[in-house]
Design goal:
The complex is a heterodimer of chains A (549) and B (313). Chain A has 549 residues and is of the alpha+beta class. Chain A is 40% helix and 13% strand. Chain A has 17 helices and 14 strands. The longest helix of chain A has 32 residues. With 313 residues, chain B is an alpha/beta fold. Chain B is 39% helix and 10% strand. In chain B, the strands form 3 sheets. A 5-stranded parallel beta sheet of chain B has the order 2-1-3-7-9, sandwiched between helices. In chain B, strands 4-8 form a two-stranded antiparallel sheet. In chain B, strand 5 and strand 6 form a beta hairpin. Classes of the chains: A alpha+beta (549), B alpha/beta (313). At the A-B interface, helix 1, helix 4, helix 7, helix 8 and helix 9 of A face helix 4, helix 5, strand 2, helix 6 and strand 5 of B.
């Protein structure tokens, strides 16, 4: 029996996550992932007006804002059999693209960077050399020795104040930090730049959604922002997109590659085996054929074999989760109850998480940027494949290095670059469509007595499915299976580990008291635990066919 | 160079002139209902705080939307709040430390600043099953709240969940979720909204730093400067209401003309907030401007009282 360590709270994520690992000989030999909060939004939805669902489910998460709303209106559109107009599809895609840009930027700089960047070491950097480094790797429009000196001075003043706030008691000076002081200072400067930029990027949601987080212009049948579709608003949207994309291309991507070049060993750590992507951004009414990010599943790392996803093969298992016992079931057949008690945490043999264990064809699958990029790469995607090849060449690492913590973090940046470019094209497509005289943003409908619908989406953190069943014009049953449930679930009835539990095995741990390496892999999945904890309504246990779309 | 000069220099490097900054301070002063003579003093708070007041930020049953809303603040930007204005001793979403180092950080902050820190609470507290539906580091949200909040100089609840229970407390409320004040049987300053406009939290904190006390509040603990009037009374579409010019279907001619959304289910008449005036994301827009009815997201129990959202009230 090795040494057990628990990291709880896992900080710099959304939600309440506990990770326990067993260490032997300086490496992780086993791992347990546990979601520590339960709210029960699906139970709350039962009996309500289906048109209201998107407001409720959007509150699953404020980091993954918008994504549950779009998933929900798509599922209800499907249940009501509404075909939304072209402008509505474009605007929904534009808001979704904006979410990717914002979410991935914030993840890299504010949730993940401090796992690789040593803030204290930045105080030792030579601003002159930092400027030279920044000039050589990035195309940032702010830089120069004076600028880096002023950033360093800010950090020094902060540290000398003795009030270290969010930077207190961390792992600074840990032997696993490999960046030279100058790279650390450059990254700290960009951490601050990105913090300011994201506040501006979030305005993309406000322009056509009224606000961010939790934009409010989606409705079943389309969007409501008709009066905002003016030249000045569209121009502003384009301007903010371009400003953000310039940073993505000139700062985020170069920073990622610069940091990665010091951590190439992480190209062999933290990998998983199976990958699932629903794909997203429908470019016409045809799904999945027209999805900009393609749909597909890859088993056992075989990039030569990308299969189409069959959502009938999805099941959720509750053997090790804090729910009443039951066999693995498709989301449409759910019959689950949260334990009506103060749950006991028993990772070794019993139940230990509020997350359920979703499986595809019985196997655990990683979802998220890496899954999407691998599926796109396997299919020879026109924009994504060249970006991946270029990054691999620049780092001189083989494609097999993608199956790792480093690959996951790189994939997130690569897809951001592709989506940022595509987003500008979609905006111009909207302009052309409005110019042609089509200003329709909404399709009126009658609420049917009953109906079922599904929305398969891919959102920043991965594959997201919403299923709705309407009876007597009310929500009879509503379920969603979210990305972090796929990635961070507990074991299942066959004792199969979840992707994160699998990925942690083999991770080197230099100092068990300071498990920085664990944070690297856990953060690379960009966990969102509030989303991931949910419950299927206990009172509907019917079996029915699913429309495979 | 004194701190104030450094501050203005930094602003100018960012393309923000003193004039822009003063304009923001004027906006904030107006939002807070202070007289114009306070404008330079508000600027003072941002430019050179004598010492950075400690803040402990607790995350309970939430979606992190309120933290995200705070990160959208401009004048001051979030980095200025963290590095130069406040001392954020504990905040799980942004802090570098994790696990037991994070827990130690909370304990150290409590020991050092007991009775002197501002506590910001985000999210509701589950109370069924001994609070077992939410835990951090093995302790329930309820235990953590009971330990930390009584030691705070002031507790500010950010967002409707922390204020009144919010979405997890909607019927049937599986976890027995409550607002922080209700769970602890005490009074808190409440900044509701789902999520609230960060301007209202900044305004409350500035008030505290400037006058040494929290702003005047209504009977629900909401600062009057932000929550003193209804959305409806401040709505730019109000004249359409008076003229009986209503939107009766999304996507219609009336919707394109920006008519009143009352018949589409707008909850503006029952909702106290400053959205039409403050607007979100640096004054970019707000839901009604995006053509969607107000859903009353800053009112207690809005998930039950204001629904179905698309039916006229």
């Amino acid at each position: 029996m090795g040494k057990r360590i628990i990291v709880d709270p896992i900080t710099r994520i959304e939600g309440h996550l506990r990770i326990e690992v067993e260490i032997e000989g300086g490496h992780v030999v086993d791992a347990w992932s546990s979601g520590q909060m339960f709210r029960g939004i699906e139970m709350i939805l039962k009996g309500r007006d289906p048109r209201d669902a998107h407001h409720f489910v959007q509150r699953s998460c404020g980091v993954c804002t918008y994504v549950h709303a779009i998933a929900s209106v798509r599922a209800v559109d499907d249940a009501f059999n509404v075909k939304i107009p072209k402008n509505a599809r474009l605007i929904r895609n534009m808001l979704h693209g904006a979410q990717y840009l914002h979410d991935h930027l914030v993840h890299f700089y504010h949730l993940h960077a401090l796992d690789w960047v040593d803030v204290v070491s930045a105080l030792q950097a030579d601003p002159q050399k930092t400027a030279a480094l920044a000039d050589s790797v990035s195309g940032a429009d702010v830089g120069g020795a004076v600028y880096f000196k002023s950033v360093q001075q800010r950090l020094k003043t902060f540290v000398e104040s003795g009030q270290l706030g969010p930077f207190a008691n961390a792992y600074w000076g840990h032997s696993a930090y490999k960046l030279p002081p100058e790279a650390n200072l450059m990254a700290c400067a960009h951490y601050i730049e990105a913090l300011r930029l994201q506040a501006r990027t979030a305005r993309l949601h406000a322009i056509f959604g009224g606000k961010n987080p939790h934009p409010q212009s989606l409705v079943v049948g389309g969007v409501t922002c008709q009066a905002s579709l003016t030249a000045d608003h569209i121009a502003e949207f384009l301007y903010v997109t371009k400003e953000t994309q310039a940073f993505v291309k000139n700062v985020y991507l170069p920073d990622l590659l610069a940091v990665a070049s010091f951590y190439k060993d992480w190209g062999g750590i933290g990998g998983t085996r199976n990958f699932l992507a629903y794909g997203d951004f429908p470019l016409t009414e045809k799904e999945p054929e027209s999805l900009y990010l393609p749909r597909g599943v890859i088993m056992k790392r075989d990039l030569g074999k990308v299969d189409m996803v069959d959502q009938a093969k999805i099941t959720e298992d509750v053997t090790r989760s804090w729910y009443e016992p039951g066999s693995p079931k498709h989301p449409y057949e759910g019959e689950t109850k949260p334990l009506a008690e103060d749950p006991k945490y028993e990772p070794s043999k019993g139940k230990y998480s509020w997350l359920k264990a979703p499986r595809y064809d019985g196997a655990s699958c990683e979802v998220g940027p890496l899954a999407r990029v691998l599926v796109a790469y396997g299919k020879g995607h026109k924009d994504i494949k060249p970006l991946v090849d270029k990054a691999l060449t620049q780092l001189s690492i083989p494609a097999t290095a993608l199956f790792s913590t480093l690959g996951r973090t790189a994939a997130r940046c690569i897809e951001t670059v592709a989506i940022g470019d595509a987003l500008q094209e979609w905006t111009m497509e909207l302009v052309e469509n409005i110019k042609s005289g089509d200003t329709k943003t909404y399709e009126p409908y009658e609420i049917p007595e009953s109906g079922r619908g599904v929305g398969l989406n891919d959102v920043p953190r991965g594959a997201l499915g919403h299923w709705v069943d309407v009876k007597d014009k009310k929500i009879h049953n509503y379920q969603y299976v979210v990305p972090s449930t796929w990635n961070l679930s507990p074991r299942d009835g066959k004792n199969q580990r979840s992707p994160v539990e699998e990925a942690l095995i083999g991770t080197p741990i230099a100092d068990p008291k300071k498990p920085l390496e664990i944070l690297r892999t856990v953060h690379s999945f960009d966990p969102c635990i509030a989303c991931a904890v949910h419950v299927i309504d206990p009172h509907s246990n019917e079996v029915y066919k699913v429309n495979v779309i | 160079m004194d701190k104030k000069e450094q501050f203005y220099q930094r602003l100018e490097q960012r393309g923000v002139s003193r004039r822009d900054f003063m304009r923001y301070c004027t906006f904030l002063t107006a939002t807070m209902g202070l007289s114009a003579s306070f404008v330079p003093k508000v600027a003072e708070v941002f430019a050179a705080p004598k010492q950075r007041p400690p803040v402990i930020w607790l995350n309970f049953g939430e979606c992190t939307g309120c933290t995200e809303a705070m990160l959208r603040t401009v004048y001051p930007y979030a980095d200025e709040l963290v590095l130069e204005i406040l001392s954020v001793e504990y905040h799980e979403t942004i802090m570098a430390a994790a696990g037991h180092q994070a827990e130690e950080q909370l304990q150290a902050a409590l020991e050092k600043h007991s009775g002197k820190f501002i506590c910001v609470a985000e999210g509701a507290i589950p109370t069924k099953y001994n609070g077992g539906y939410g835990r951090i580091g093995g302790r329930t949200f309820l235990e953590i709240a009971q330990e930390v909040i009584p030691q705070a100089a002031a507790t500010i609840c950010i967002g409707t969940c922390a204020c009144f229970g919010g979405v997890p407390a909607a019927k049937p409320n599986p976890g027995g979720y409550m607002g922080v004040g209700q769970a602890l049987k005490m009074k808190t300053i409440n900044i509701p909204g789902c999520p609230p406009n960060p301007v209202n939290l900044v305004g409350t904190i500035v008030n505290y730093l400037l006058l040494g006390k929290l702003p005047a509040v209504d009977d629900m603990g909401r600062p009057l400067f932000a929550y003193g009037k209804t959305i409806h009374d401040q709505c730019p579409r109000r004249s359409h209401f008076e003229n009986e010019e209503f939107v009766e279907e999304f996507g219609s001619k009336e919707a394109a003309l920006g008519y009143c959304l009352y018949k589409m289910g707008c909850r503006g008449p029952e909702t106290y907030n400053n959205c039409p005036v403050a607007k979100f994301n640096d004054g970019t827009s707000w839901p009604v401007e995006a053509g969607h009815p107000c859903i009353g997201c800053s009112e207690p129990d809005f998930w039950d009282k204001m629904t179905p959202f698309y039916e006229e009230f």
